[in-house]
Amino acid sequence: MNVSRKSFASDNNSGVHPAILQAIATANEGHAIAYGDDPITARAVEKLREHFGEEIDAYFVYGGTGANVLGLKQIARPHHSIICPETAHIHNDECGAPEHYTGCKLLTVPSNDGKLTVEGVQRHLHGFGFEHHSQPKVISISQATELGTVYTPEEIRALADLAHRHGMLLHMDGARLCNAAAALDAGLREITTGAGVDVLSFGGAKNGLLIGECVIFFRKELSADFKFTRKQGMQLMSKMRFVAAQYEAYLSGDLCLRLAKRANRTAGSLAAEVEKIPEIQITQPVQSNAVFAILPKEAIEELQRQFFFYVWNEETSEVRWMTSFDTNGDDVMDFVQCIRIVMNKYLR
Amino acid sequence: MNVSRKSFASDNNSGVHPAILQAIATANEGHAIAYGDDPITARAVEKLREHFGEEIDAYFVYGGTGANVLGLKQIARPHHSIICPETAHIHNDECGAPEHYTGCKLLTVPSNDGKLTVEGVQRHLHGFGFEHHSQPKVISISQATELGTVYTPEEIRALADLAHRHGMLLHMDGARLCNAAAALDAGLREITTGAGVDVLSFGGAKNGLLIGECVIFFRKELSADFKFTRKQGMQLMSKMRFVAAQYEAYLSGDLCLRLAKRANRTAGSLAAEVEKIPEIQITQPVQSNAVFAILPKEAIEELQRQFFFYVWNEETSEVRWMTSFDTNGDDVMDFVQCIRIVMNKYLR
Amino acid sequence: MNVSRKSFASDNNSGVHPAILQAIATANEGHAIAYGDDPITARAVEKLREHFGEEIDAYFVYGGTGANVLGLKQIARPHHSIICPETAHIHNDECGAPEHYTGCKLLTVPSNDGKLTVEGVQRHLHGFGFEHHSQPKVISISQATELGTVYTPEEIRALADLAHRHGMLLHMDGARLCNAAAALDAGLREITTGAGVDVLSFGGAKNGLLIGECVIFFRKELSADFKFTRKQGMQLMSKMRFVAAQYEAYLSGDLCLRLAKRANRTAGSLAAEVEKIPEIQITQPVQSNAVFAILPKEAIEELQRQFFFYVWNEETSEVRWMTSFDTNGDDVMDFVQCIRIVMNKYLR
Amino acid sequence: MNVSRKSFASDNNSGVHPAILQAIATANEGHAIAYGDDPITARAVEKLREHFGEEIDAYFVYGGTGANVLGLKQIARPHHSIICPETAHIHNDECGAPEHYTGCKLLTVPSNDGKLTVEGVQRHLHGFGFEHHSQPKVISISQATELGTVYTPEEIRALADLAHRHGMLLHMDGARLCNAAAALDAGLREITTGAGVDVLSFGGAKNGLLIGECVIFFRKELSADFKFTRKQGMQLMSKMRFVAAQYEAYLSGDLCLRLAKRANRTAGSLAAEVEKIPEIQITQPVQSNAVFAILPKEAIEELQRQFFFYVWNEETSEVRWMTSFDTNGDDVMDFVQCIRIVMNKYLR
Questions:
Q1: d(CA B26, CA B28)
Q2: Model confidence over D288-317: pLDDT tens digits?
């Protein structure tokens, strides 16, 4: 298997967009004060304000797990609970970092499409004031979800209102926020603070950045002392300008949305082609850059010999295919062609 | 103050060495499996083995605090104590991350030169087996130290033997390991595992890398399950190849030592020039890339208006000046010239 | 409401059995070395060995949450997960202490009767070796369960075998272990280590003790360094003899089983009487000292004005009634009489 | 060695005062709601208010380590530091519980007499606002100290003022608070909140209680959500009435002060007698119930064969002798007689 062939395994198997790499090179001029007290970081934060609003408080960190964990740690004490769908990245893919480093309990809600609903959350909203019970404090959602689906602003607002009615906060894991924005044709602000989100992990590594994530607090009273939490949380980069420069470029001229749109579009193409193969069942609406599909186990194995990708659910024989900012039409056609050959062979 | 003027504030105010930047660009070819399961990471680990020995187990992480904390967490349980000099980075500069994230107690030893001695450590070696007392488990040293001094291999060996005699382990914070190696004209292996070190944080960001640090275990039985600790510890980079590529370049053709030598040499030049100014007292032997000096408070303030650097000790009016891989003779001369003018003005 | 009237709210609303109080008074002779290095503690451990086997390692702690958390902390590292029924005390009633103080993730299994099944556990047994996934390490069950049901030795053995096949361990919350033993007419050893349990929280406060709980490791290699974990875990009592004396008395002449039998018997009587009231539905098999029943919301409220007890499930109008070692036939008759009057009034 | 002979090892080697034991027996009447929602707990809190003031918020916990750790956890976040003398119980005798369970750094101040001074604390009061530095937040003192010395109200006030000027808080470990009050002939309020203390661990187990400690917040805004921290912190006792009843008795008719006075008085007698032996050097002012003395190593060993006590400092051959509420004049005379015989033998 040629690993460097563009895979459909994950959007973080792709590399760095040339404009991002150029921004890093450009930032490499002389000395700059470390830890973010430099002009590039200041400019990047300004760019964030353009997109998310003047009142934000934004902090760059190394990666997505760090962004989620420290953002949650900032708004929850250890006796609190965090409610998320059972498909959440914070529940499945961070090796228990949220529990270990926030001290909080995670409460999960079953979900077929990766989304939380008001009804689903409500069954965990009890025991307030009862000292034996972890106190519900945060609702956490991913936009786009781990299943490639996208919350509408109204759906987010409903969850935000539910949270706020109970003195709780709404956290968003935005590792693929731009894919969601591109899918909805909405602005970043509209689907975050505009819909009631309180704290956001705003990622870029799945959409053309080399490294870096940003924790954004939409109200300044939420971020008090966060700089200490970031440093103690091992997420303060010394040569900060090189993350900031990426974000500055990423947010300029809507590069972030253009890249996301491209990834979404090729996912759509892939889905459209795959749908023509009757033996393959697409299991989730293809709203961002993921395609989930059920196909025969033997076909999966044969296909994996040629393309690297992950089986999502062994039991149901469901796979996940993801497109990246650099996936193009030819890549999709190659892959689809390969799928067809394998399916024909298998079905024959 | 022109911040981008090469400062003598810190070796992480410098940028990225061109060969490192080139390595990043070269690594940006097509897709690669995320999280380190890629050929560049494999090659970088091979390079580490060339320098540190075949038997190592090495893990890339984001930064120095993460490397120290997770390396220590791996070898100590929360009821253990970690003995370090009171000048240690893990004690002063990581915002309590070691305590919070390992659960261990830090026990400090007074030190004039940033180094631990056998005698200094021994006063903490009691209470073994007594359940009310945090059990001494790790001795942690920095090489080079935070005061720019360098342990000889024999000094390290003495501490390693002391540790091992008590069932303890020796941890080394090697944020400036190459500066120490350059100073001693020794190999990296010789001053680490060759001298009895068990676990090492091997940094590069203070010597020309953009980002990244490496936790190296010198015996495989020490590293069991560390991959989970790294992921849970928010230090697993998705696009790992871009850190690995830096290390591969850094360790090729002894780039790491050449850069460190350069920084050490300019620190030596700076010290030699400053020594000629009788009103300035150099307070530490200049063995690596740091110069510590006492000068009049008013002179410090005037000088800081032109060059950014840190006061190390307000009380004693002591400053720290650091050189970087990119500091050159002209930078030193400019700075010395400025020091002379300020001192003359102040002394007049 | 007369609170000191024997309530059916919880078995820890009862007081201390006279023999236990006498043992405390008897232990109050002269001085004894603190923290457990005294002859009474030695004798109590000997009693534990009589019941649980020679090879145990036993540690007294203050209470049930401490016993569960520290027992689990001893056998799991933070990157591990702990699988329990969604009704577990460790999940619902310890305010997130297990997550905060072990660092582990809790994974829950839906359960109608408070018990785990092999099938229920198996859906969490995946992702072994995958660093993004909390590694399954412990299965935790309560005996008797929080719903008053009791595992047979065969059911425990099946879960133990499942755990051990996967390199995992079986933990038992035995806050009501004696009630289970009495229900099964089995020995304490038979339903713990005899059935494959690795670590046990052995409580007594719900069965006539004043305070105290015991963490029992059934294989000595599991308990290394636990004395430090207990002390650091704030669970080492200074005047240990006064907990040990209780356990010595509790385990002498099978007092523990006699008291449990009494509580179970009155629960049985209560259930038998309540079953005669057709409008009340008993929802769980009454195997130990709890009766779960659904009755009209208005009846619950009226009844609560006279007897203190808890609503288990607001939605289904289900209550929990518990009997204690000191509940007698008259108490049951009083309570049943009251229930009848209330139900008649409500139904009229 | 007859262990039950009244030892001079520790004040928690003594038993329970009869009035306390009686209070426990009296509390054992019928049922009471668990976890503190009972009339005895209400009365005990009322008694605390009589002694400490109406505005307190008080919480019973199991023991001293729990009281200290949870009190500190309540007022400090993990990025904070806690300043204490190097002799502090929280630093030496709690197996690192404060670091592990609060996440904070402990900063120690050298101390010859167990007390903190304003000057000693001040050297740690820097780095405010600097994110690399644990932020100083709490000053913690023990009253009486671990060396048996006692702070005057003025000394406490000076430390409180220092703390408050820096936005910090003053915590007091009052495991032997009554001994200090007795020594000063002062009220409990006068030497705590009256002198500026913000949070207190108020112990009794070293002065005649069986078990239990109380965390007292002197301003209600400091205690928000503490009930969750206590429960999650494994320090919520189910049968709370039995701790509360002890405190009610302890605080009635000044029993607590009478017992402390007795212990102090016998320590004074012991010191007076020992001072007559010229070869023994008393090393600390005997202000409460401890006597620290240097005597020849061989004499220590011989004496320990007859009386159990601890060597405080192996190097200096210093021992600690403590008296308890139940130590009487005859005990002192026996012990002194034994010391004399041993010293004579050794000196001959």
A1: 5
A2: 999 999 999 999 999 999 998 999 998 999
Angle in degrees, 0-180, between the axes of helices D18-27 and C18-27, rounded to the nearest 10: 170
Predicted ipTM beyond 0.85: yes
Token readout for C11 is 């078995």
Closest CA to D289 of D141, D112, D115, D143: D143
Shortest alpha-carbon distance between residue D5 and chain B (Å): 24
Q: Look at residues B150, A224, B83, D63 and name the one whose alpha carbon lies nearest to residue C233.
A: D63
Amino acid at D44: A
Kind and range of the H or E run holding B106? strand B105-109
What does the buried/exposed string (b/e) look like for A125-144 if buried means 16 or more CB atoms within 10 Å of the residue's CB?
bebeeebbbbbbbbbbbbbb
Is the Cβ pair D77, A225 closer than 8 Å? yes
Q: Give the separation between CA D183 and CA D176, rounded to whole angstroms.
A: 11
Note the pLDDT of residue C5. 64
Chain A residue at shortest CA distance from C77:
A100
CA–CA separation, D162 vs D140, rounded Å?
A: 12
Q: Would you call D4 and C324 a contact, using CB atoms and an 8 Å cutoff? A: no
| Minimum distance, in Å, between the CA of residue C274 and any CA atom of chain A | 28
Over residues A134-153, the pLDDT tens digits come to 999 999 999 999 999 999 99
Q: Residues D288, D290, D291, D292: is their CA dihedral positive or negative?
A: negative
pLDDT category at A346 given cuts 50, 70, 90 is confident
The SS3 assignment for C80 reads strand
Q: What is the residue-wise DSSP string for D128-156?
A: TT-TTSPEEEEEEEESS-TTS----HHHH
Contacts of A221 (CB under 8 A, 6+ apart): none
Confidence of residue C1 (pLDDT cuts 50, 70, 90): very low
Collect the ranges in chain D with pLDDT lower than 70: 1-5, 348
List, in order of start, the domains of chain A with CATH numbers.
18-250 (3.40.640.10), 256-347 (3.90.1150.10)
pTM over 0.95: yes
* Interface with C, mutate which of B59, B60, B102, B131 (most C CBs under 10 A): B131
User: Residue B311's beta-bridge partner residues?
Assistant: B319
A274-294 as b/e: b if 16+ CB within 10 A:
beebeebebbbebbbbbbbbb
Q: What is the C-alpha end-to-end distance of chain B, expressed in Å?
A: 24
Distance of alpha carbon A322 from alpha carbon A12, whole angstroms? 10
Task: Give the pLDDT mean for C30-51.
Answer: 96
B129: left (phi over 0), alpha (psi -120 to 50) or beta: left
Question: In this predicted model, which residue has the larger pLDDT, B7 or A172?
Answer: A172
Distance CA C77, CA C230 (A): 16
